[in-house]
Model the fold of this input.
Amino acid sequence: GGGTSEVAVISLGGIVTSRSLRVAGDKMDLAISDYIKKKHNLAIGDQTAEEIKMRIGTALPEKESKAIEIRGRDLILGLPRNIKISSNEICEAIADTLSEIIQAIKIVLRETPPELSADIMNKGMILTGGGSLLRNLSELIAKSTGVPCTLSEESLLCVAKGTGVMLENLDTYKKSTMTKK
Done:
């Protein structure tokens, strides 16, 4: 969900290695809000931060930056104020959060058995979930890890559809879901 990033290598219906971290979309929203507060002396709400991320957020700086006008409360005067913010500013704001996610990916890749590493290099990684919809995220991950990375079809529905498949085949997946770590 918006508060957790899961990184896993899955093979033959089971999890080979994984890492879970409490860094995801919500933390990006907070980073955007903090950035605007520090750089523009403007307080914005959580919904505004999320809207900015969804509309112009990007994981990599862009040559042709997008911009939107946002409203918030001026921290000095206490009055409402509008500013324009660019996609490259949002990229700067969320860079640390994305770096944490990339570190988790690198750790999982290091823990992956060598036999599977070749398959991962051939087939690449697949991003799922709402956070994967951040523009240029797959390119950033591929560039940072050297492993091809693509966005799944219907990223927002992957978890729900996967859970449905798992429930339909519970006997098959029971072993991999019930094991303790």
About this structure: Residues 31 and 179 are 36 Å apart (CA to CA). The helical segments are 25-40, 46-56, 87-111, 114-123, 137-145, 158-168, 170-178.
